[in-house]
Automatic annotation (TrEMBL):
Similarity comment: In the N-terminal section; belongs to the enoyl-CoA hydratase/isomerase family.
Stated name of the protein: Peroxisomal bifunctional enzyme
Alphabetically ordered keywords of this record: Fatty acid metabolism, Isomerase, Lipid metabolism, Lyase, Multifunctional enzyme, NAD, Oxidoreductase, Peroxisome
Residue ranges annotated for the 3-hydroxyacyl-CoA dehydrogenase NAD binding domain, each copy included: 298-474
Record-level Gene Ontology MF annotations: (3S)-3-hydroxyacyl-CoA dehydrogenase (NAD+) activity; delta(3)-delta(2)-enoyl-CoA isomerase activity; enoyl-CoA hydratase activity; NAD+ binding
Subcellular location: Peroxisome
Lineage: Eukaryota, Metazoa, Spiralia, Lophotrochozoa, Mollusca
Entry's EC annotation: 1.1.1.35, 4.2.1.17, 5.3.3.8
Domain 3-hydroxyacyl-CoA dehydrogenase C-terminal: start-end pairs: 479-581, 618-703
GO cellular component, one term: peroxisome
Amino acid sequence: MANYTKRDEVAVIELNNPPVNALSFEVRSGLQNALKSAIDDQDVKCIVIHGKGKNFSAGADIKEFGAGTKQQKPWITDACRLADESSKPVVAAIAGTALGGGLEVALFCHYRIGTPSCRVGFPEVQIGILPGAGGTQRLPRLIGVNSSIDMITSGRHVMAEEAMKLGILDKIVTEDIIEEGVKFAKSVVGLDLAHRILKNRKIEAVSPKVFDDEISRVKKKYKGYIAPLFCLKAIQASVQLPYDASMEQELQLFQHLVGSNQAKAQQYAFFAERTSARWQLPTGANSQNASPLPVKTAGVIGAGTMGAGIALCLITSGIPTVLVEQDQKFLEKGIKTMEGDLRGSVALKKMTAEQAKKAMLILKPSVNFEDLHDVDLVIEAVYENLALKKEIFAKLDKICQPQTILCTNTSSLDIDMIAEATKRMDKVVGTHFFAPAYIMKLQENVYGKNTSAETVATVMALGRRIRKVPVLVGTCESFAANRMLHPYVTEALYLVEEGASPYEVDQVLEDFGMPMGMFRVSDLSGLDIGYKVRREAAKRQGIDLTLGTRFVNGERVCLLADVLVEKGRLGIKSGKGWYNYGSPGKKEAIPDPEVLDIIEEHCRKFGIKKQKISSQEILERMQLALINEGFRILEEGIVSKPEDIDVIWIYGFGWPKYMGGPMFYANEMKLKNVYRKICDFHQKYPFSIHWTPSKLLARLSETDLPISNWTSLINSNSKL
Ligand code: 3HC
């Protein structure tokens, strides 16, 4: 709803729908009524619109967007049209965020003022739609076509200072936004409003070439996403058509997107991220009843690629950090990497040179473990070796304060075994970052059997503070993310053995929307890493792994990647892997006939008959293998809800948001179809354990219930 009060001759309208004042039907109706009352009231000379609480408004209520349904009237434009027609000045007083429809309300006002910390933006593209209440028509009239294209197609938030420069804000005021709004509104009473009404403003002439170029840019930058292209169409309409006609065009494009599968998937992903933040431990402790400990300072051990990246996340979020390496030379190398990454961020305008400098000032590089004595939390990021990690944790346990939380960035080792090296097992937790740690948003937090709720709350809160998307998972071999990767990678190798080329496999995955095919990713990570992990695991199990091994414990294995490693093809770092890169470190991946010969030779050696494999089979086998594993992870309680898995794949491995994540994808395919296909593959490939159908999937597939019901079904029926 919207509250209506008066202060002298000023009408104050408060958008009231906590926590973010989403513009639900009630708010839109309330706003329309309040504007009408203010305009009709003879004593009112001017009007201020503000939001209750911290935010102006986060825009339309996303929950109201059922695919294909029309918005219930009054729509935002209906509610705001009165402002356009008002002879009394209307001022938007913005604190917190004015996003999407929230900003559109503000663009119907004659003036906009904001607090220094306010943010404005059109993030609609991120939920698969476009600004559908005049945003694509009114913003270009205010700030020009080019800046509008940038803001609307990127969805980025614009801070107060930039909003002022662009002309979105007329004034930056103090944080006391209602007082400031009233004062400002009084100061503009009696001024000519004609030029303040955006629909009356002339729009600059822009050649069609600008839009052609933008279409190419957007297609490349937001590959696969349709919403940014629709935004361009709507903005182009603002240039080509009279206001009323182009508003109609915007509405049509908006309605089309609202009903699209991409919008459904992206909106699911929006809420999945928030659902995933609500964690729960098997003890019943959860995000509602556990409080985080304060983290004022942190420490990172290891200045390699991961450690340096993690330290960068901490210092760029304002957390003073001690970075410890055992060797001065490695430490300096790590710092150089960090400085290089910061220069990159400055060049990309993600931060100012001043901010980059400030970040480095709160980094304390050290070769002395004792410097970690007073930090609140330490993240260990040395290489994957259990004995080494245990040694480090035993040492940290002695050096650090008793309340200090000790985190490990292990991607596979047992958290409980690491914790056993300390006398504070409740304060030991996994914080698994993804490479490159400074860029990738996933933070997979892993609790052990003794990790306390307070410790979990602390690392979950830390994740959000350092702009990551934290997900909580339980302990198991490789945890949730990499465990699901295993059948995906394995299936890719089987496909290559059976007749698909690595380049076909990658193409299918990239056409689906993955940022990189599996083989390109492997080259980027380095094939030698998997090689070492496989050998260490085999050694632990007493297995003699050689290039001639075809079965381990009755399960089919394919060691083609190891053949490449033994030929010196380690991936990008050696200039050759599954692809040829010309020279080490170069990024352009060129398919290599030599690799095809190696595969040919491998198949001849083992008498494997090659056949043509269709794109559909490639996609199905890779995706269903990981989806089946996802259901097993859910079944075992390693994650507590399907949204956790989707968030992991979106933010850890670049699963396209417009496909919602693997669990959402399975939901869209219908579980009975997914289950049937997995059973077929299980029959066809009996020696691949990853095709054993998940029991949970089997049971859920009988119910035909949508993904939103799975969690309560799992919780309410322990037999599932
Ligand atoms: N509609 C419905 N619910 C919303 C919402 C919206 N527009 N924005 C946020 N929420 C809900 C969240 O789901 C969350 O609910 P929960 O507590 O039950 O999980 C709650 O509000 C708080 O949100 P956050 O946890 O995200 O709070 P933050 O403080 O971290 O972030 C925010 C605040 C930056 C405003 C962030 O919520 C956000 O980005 N919201 C979406 C903004 C957006 O996409 N706006 C466009 C909407 S579409 C539109 O306006 C169409 C128009 O052009 C016609």
